[in-house]
Specification:
The structure is a homodimer of 212-residue chains. Chain A has 212 residues and is mostly beta strands. Chain A has helices at residues 46-49, 92-100, 113-121, 129-133, 165-168, and strands spanning 4-10, 32-39, 55-61, 64-70, 73-77, 82-86, 102-107, 137-138, 147-148, 153-161, 170-180, 190-194, 197-206.
């Protein structure tokens, strides 16, 4: 059974802050065109995160949604998909993730490179990153934080293990629902090499692998 | 201070097993041409692993070196570099890593795609993967398992936290020494998308990032 999520994607308008408050109300934006995102079977989530893309993690606390740019994550189990990720306690998202135990892992392609870096250069303590970077929050189905409409995939997740949080900021997340733009066949994901250098996903090759 | 490691790289001869035993003696191979690997400052290790390359993890137990193909890893700290990685207890390398608490994380580029997949398709319980795939073991400087000469980077590592091993096979490693081929500027690393599909690293773009 495949669910269908019809979201509205606002045209990119990164540097023109929208005149709206900081409270995430789950409303649908105007000036929009429709994009269909489909439910992705949980067994296929690992293929999205294994290649190491930069992700945008959304959280929600006290009515305020935030976005964090993040590269320190790894798959830990195929199904249900478990994802380990490091969120430093210096990040504004740390307290939201620890307190609410929910987030969405959104995967941008290279067309969102400027917004992705912008979210990494700013702090949610002072900036409404959705407004600043023209990102569109879309209500998730199983968690409170919003999906980012402009990302080609979004993984709704809950924290399931915090044993390594105090020492390393390492959260174990379980993906409970996954969404993907079915037209994104070989997305040009971003891969951080450090200090502003990002490798953009190149060609895909096939080899006779027995690995899952 | 920059150390220099001169290793000998055997010409690739993947499908012709060498006539040698399974015991790793640290000897240097013949039929070789020299390649210089340089010491890489530990503060720069994260830039190698953050983009999510497939890696070849070497272990050594009871005189036998083994190689495991692996994609489930993440940086956890800049310096000293901490790396979290998942090794399933179904892998032959699991017991070696748990018992010896040492490994080397070797990073292959696309020219080693066939050998990388080959190591993933076979088990060290029955196969000497160095011999089978024409990989050259080179003595490491601070740990017992060998480096792989053909890989453009090799990170000597020790296990520092096993709290999540029983539940997830998740080891926290500290990189204690890093080696890199200084000619590998923008290596065409492999990034697993699942079921034999590998994305090969594409172009690098630069953006004004404040992220480390």
């Amino acid at each position: 059974m495949e669910a269908l999520l019809v979201v509205s994607v606002r045209r990119a308008c990164p540097l023109t802050p929208r005149k709206k408050g900081r409270t995430y109300t789950g409303g649908s934006p105007d000036e929009a065109f429709p994009v269909k995102k489909r439910s992705l079977p949980l067994s296929r989530v690992y293929g999205l995160l294994e290649p190491g893309p930069v992700v945008l993690i959304t959280t929600l606390r006290r009515g305020r949604a935030n976005v964090m740019t993040q590269s320190w994550h790894t798959m830990m189990e195929f199904e249900p998909p478990l994802v380990g990720c490091v969120v430093s306690d210096e990040n504004h998202s740390f307290e939201a993730l620890r307190a609410t135990r929910e987030c969405v892992i959104n995967i941008p392609a290279a067309d969102l490179a400027r917004q992705t870096v912008g979210c990494g250069n700013t702090t949610g303590a002072r900036v409404d990153k959705f407004a600043r970077f023209g990102l569109t929050p879309v209500p998730a189905s199983m968690v409170a934080p919003p999906l980012i409409a402009e990302c080609f995939a979004s993984l709704e997740a809950r924290v399931v293990d915090t044993r390594l949080v105090n020492r390393y900021g390492f959260f174990v997340l379980e993906v409970v629902k996954a969404w993907i733009d079915p037209t994104a066949k070989e997305p040009r994901t971003l891969h951080h090499r450090g200090h502003g250098r990002f490798m953009v996903a190149g060609e895909t090759i096939r080899l006779p692998s027995r690995m899952k």
